[in-house]
Amino acid sequence: MKHLRVVAVLAALAGILLTAGPAAARNLANAFTLTPMIGGHVFEGNQPYDDDWTYGLALGYNYDQIWGTELLLFYTDANQSSPYTGSADIYNGMINGLYHFLPEGPLVPYVTFGLGAQRRDNDRRSTENDFLLNWGLGAKYFISQEVALRVDARHLIAFDQGLDEPSKAHNNQLYSAGLTFQFGAPAPAPEPT
User: Beta 147-159 vs 67-79: how paired, if at all?
Assistant: First the structure.
């Protein structure tokens, strides 16, 4: 039920993305970005975790209008399902590249890919650290030169380093929505008169 609310929010944001925006708003070269996000973490069926809310923060830099990089941190407090009880604190840390399409307009779709680590602190049991690959799709819609609405969906592949299943890979999904703030870009050169 709670994920239906997030889907409704994402659908509303998608509707906003389809409207015209400010002509000057766009992805800026040499800009830093800060993006707080909220969304959902969906676990593979054989993992002992219930799907739950996730909270994230991304710090990024645009090398030019097309290529950028981000450091992302996501936190999920997931309830554990049978046969376990309690909850697990799940941390995903990633460094990703971004390739932006149509960076000159207010609507900027992108693809993202990268690597990182997943840490799962299980109540009264253990702590597990896994290598993580991820890729995803998203879009930014600039409502001003400094602020964009952002939606993001990504596939996480966590390679279980546990002794019981050393070669097991878990497939999870993260979806999120947030606001991107871009700052620090050099002022554009004045147009010749």
Answer: unpaired
